[in-house]
Queue: 2 jobs
Job 1
Amino acid sequence: MKIVQQRLLHESLLNTAKYFPDKVAVIVQGKPFTYTELLDSSLRLANALRIRGLRRGDRVAIYLDNTWECVVSIYAVLIASGIFIIINPQTKSDKLGYILNDSDANLMLTDSSLSRNFVPVLNKSHAVRHLIYTGKELSESTKEELDPTINIETFNKIISESVSMTQVASVIALDMAGLVYTSGSTGDPKGVIHTHQSMMFALGSLIEYLRLSNEHRILCVLPLAFDYGLYQLFMTVQLGATLVLERSFTYPVQIFNRIEESSVTVFPGVPTVFSMMLAMHNRKPLHFPLVTRVTNTAAALPEEYIPKLKEIFPAALIYKMYGLTECKRVCYLEPELVSEKPNSVGKAIPGTEVFLLSEEGNPVPPGEMGILHVRGPHVMLGYWKDPEKTAYMLKDGPIPGERVLCTHDLFRMDSDGFLYFVGRTDDIIKTRGEKVSPLEVENVLYAVNGVKEAAVIGVPDEILGEAIYAYVSLDEESKPTKREIARACIENLENYMVPKEIIILPELPKTNTNKISKNELAKINTEKLDQNIA
Amino acid sequence: MTVKAKVRTYVLENYLFTDDQSALNDDDSFMKLGIIDSTGILEIISYLEEELGIQVEDDEMTPENLDSIENIIAFVSRKSVVSST
C-alpha cells in the first residue's frame, strides 16, 4: 500500500473525496452535500480565483456566515494557493475596512445581505479588485455605489461557468494557509499567521486526543470565523466524517432537532451554550444519548455544570480545554479525569509542551502561579505585518531560531502536572466565550458626539461569563442619550461586543496619576449590587 | 397600541436603537440580518411573556415563531386564541 504523505490542508479534501466520494461531507442547515460535490465546487471556484488573478500567497477575504458557499470558499482558496481570511459576518464597516486594508486582500467573497457593511468600505482604495457574492441580487443602485474598477460577480454564476482546476497550484507546508484575526488589548485586531504545517499539526493533535474517527458526525454552531468552529470543518474533512453546520445557537430547539435527525455524535460548545441548555434541561429534561463527545473551550466550564451535562449527554466524554488563536489549542483534560481534577484544563495537547515562568522569566515550583508558555509546531508564525506585537507574544526558545508562545495568561500547575487557569494579565474581557478588547469598545464610545470620557470593564455574569459595562461622562453642550450611545455600539461592533449596560456618570473616577480608574468603577458596580442585597 | 406596534417598537428600540419604522420590515428575518442572537431571543421571549402575558414553551423557541415581526405576531395570536377558549 502506498503511503501518501499529507502536508497541505486541502490535500485532506482531495484524499477524502477519492476514498469516500459519495459520503456526506457537510449538512448545511439540513441540506446534505457529498465530498464529491465539495471537491467539485471547490475546484471550480479555485480555478475561477486563479483566472481572476489569485497568485500564491494572495489573501482572500471570506466575509460569510456558516454557509455552503463559505465552506467551498475556504477550500477553493487553499487549492488555488491563496491564504484565507474568514471574517465574522457580524463585523461592521470600520473593522472590516481595517482587516481588508491590513491584509491587502485582492478578492472578497461575501453575501449581499452584508452590503451595508462592505459597500462603504470597498470604495476606499483597498486592494480588493474582485467581489463574488451570494444571496439576493445586488440592486442597481448598490452596484452603482461601488467603485467601477471592482469586478462584481455572483457565486453561483461563477461555479456554473467555471471548469475544475486540474493542476493544483503548488505551495509547501511552510507556506501560509490562513490569517485568523483576533482581538487584542490595543484596540485593532491582529492577523494570526498560520501555515499549512502549523494547522496540519494542530489538526492531527486534536483528532488524536478527541479520539475521533470517520464515523463521527460533528455539530458546528460556532462561527467558522472563530478557529474553534473552523477546525470542526477541518477535522471532519481530514477524517472523512460528516459536519452538521448551523449558523448559531439562537434557536436551541432547532439545533436539538438537528442533533437528533442527523445523529450528531460530537457537540462542541462554550459555557454560554451549556448554560442555556442547562436552564432548558431544568424545565424539561434534554437527552442526547448518541452524543459521545462534548467539548468546551473559550472560557471556563463551571464545575457545577458537569453532573447536569452528564444527564443530558449520558454517553459522552466531556473535554475541558484551553487554547488561544495564536496556537489553536494549548491543553485538554482527559475526560476520564473530569470529576477527579474538577477545575483543571489538563495537560499539553499531544506533541507539544507547556511551562510556567515568573514575571522575571524563572521556572515556578508546583502550586505557584506563573505565566504559561507553549512550545510546539502549532505555534503561529507571528502577527501579520506587526513585528512589535509579535515580539510581545513570541520569545526565543531553547533551540536556536525557535519561537515559544507566551500566552500572558496566569496558570498554576499541581504536583501531578495538571494546569489550572488563574487569570489574564491583560484587560481583555471574555464574554460569551468571545474576546473583547475594552479599548475597541471605548474607541466606539469616544466617537459618539458628546461623550467626554469612556471606560469599559468586564463584570462577572452568570450566563455570559463576563458582561460588558460601559461608563461614560458627557460634554456640557451635547448630551447623547443612552439609546444613541447603544446605537453607535450596535452599528460599529459585533453583537457580543455591545455593552450590556451603559452607565452615565457626571465624571469618571481617577487614579492619582489622573487616569481613569477601572478599579474604582468595578467597585461602584459591586457596591450597587451590594445595595440590592441589603 | 396594537400588539404589532408594541412588538415592532420593542425590537426597533432595543436591537436597532432607532424609532425609524422603515428600518425593519415585518418579514425581515432577525437571524439573517444579524439583529438578534441567542441572548437577544431570550430577552424577546421575556418581553412577550411579561408584556403580553403569554407563556413560551421551550419547544416553541423556533424561527417559525420568533424570527420576524410577522412570525411573532402570528405566534402570539395563536397563543392568545388558545388561552381565551
Job 2
Amino acid sequence: MNTESDLAETLQQALIADPHRLDRLHRRLGAAAETEGLLDVAYRTVDSPVGTLLIAATDTGLVRVAYAKEDHDHVLQTLSDRISPRVLHHPTRLDATARELDEYFTGRRRTFDVTLDWRLVAGFRATVLRHLTDIEYGHTASYATLAELAGHPKAIRAVGTACATNPLPVVVPCHRVVRSDGSMGGYLGGSEAKATLLQLEAA
Amino acid sequence: MSSKLPFEAVVGIHGATVLRVCVAVVGHAEADDAWSETFLSAMKAYPSLPADANVEAWLVTIAHRRAIDVGRARSRRAVPTDSIVDRAAPPDRCESDADLMAALEALPDKQRQSVAYHYLAGLPYAEVASILGGTTEAARRAAADGIATLRRSGVGAASQTTERSTR
C-alpha cells in the first residue's frame, strides 16, 4: 500500500500551517487560560549576565527562578509535579519580574518588589531564606551569621542546604552568603555566577 | 517515574498534529477556533487525566467534539443571503492545497474524519471507531473510501513542493 502512504504524506505536508500560526495559537491559549483561571503556572525565560534564567509564577506570585545549570526541562517537570501540570509558557504574567531583573542586572535596582510565592519551601529552610533579605545589596554575611539571624546559631549546615535549594535565587539573595573565612563558598548557579552577582553589587 | 508532563510539553508535542486534524476536518477558517477550544478544554481536564493515558487519542477525541461544535456554530451563522461567507484558504497557499481542501470538504463527514484521525493523527482504526462510533471495520472502510475519492480528485499527483516544517 505504498501509494496510500504517499497520499497520507501529501496530506501531512499540505496541511502544515505557516510557522507563525502555532505560535499565535499558543499565545491565544495562554491568554484564554489566564482569563479562565486555568493557568496554574506561567513561565518564561530571560537572558542575563549569569545565563538564561527560567522564571515561573503562580497566581500568588513568583514561585521559581532557575539557572540553566539546574536544567529547565527538569525544573518544569518538578513544578508540574509539585504545583500543577497546568504549566504554560506565557510571558505576560512575568512582565514585571522580567523588567525588575533587567533593572537589577543593569545596576538600576537594588531590591525586588514583585510578590513571592513561597510554597516550594517549608520549615527552617523557609525561615533562613526569608532572612536573606536582611543582607543588604552590596553586602555579604557568613553562613554562621545567617544561622544566628534565623534563630539557630548552630544550624550552619542547614543554612547551607537552605541556600543550595533556594527556589528563588537572585531575587532571594542567597548569593550574599559567604564562608566565615571570607572565601565565596558554593552556589546553586555555579561559583562563576555568584562572583558575577557579587561584582555587580560591589560596583 | 511515570509523572505527567507539564501541559506546555503536551502543546509542543501534539499542537501541530491537532492543528492538521482541525484543518482537515473543519477547514482553514474554522481550524484556529477548533484548535483553541480543544486545547483549552484539554487543559481544564488535564490534571485528572490518568498518567498512562494515550494523550494524542484523548486530544483527537476532544478535537472531534469541538469540531462538531464549531461546525454547528458555522451552519447557524450561515444565513442564506447573497453575502458569501469567505471560507477560502489564505492567499499564500498554493493551488494544489486549495484543491486538496476542496476535495476534503467534499467528502462525507465520516470519511473526512476517518482519514484525518487515522492518516494525520496516526490513530489505529479501533481508536478511530471509538471516537466516531461504529465498528473498527466501518472506520477502516470510511478511511479507504475517503482516500480513494481524494485520489480520484487528483490529490497526491500534485507537486510536493510544500516543505515540511517541524516544531
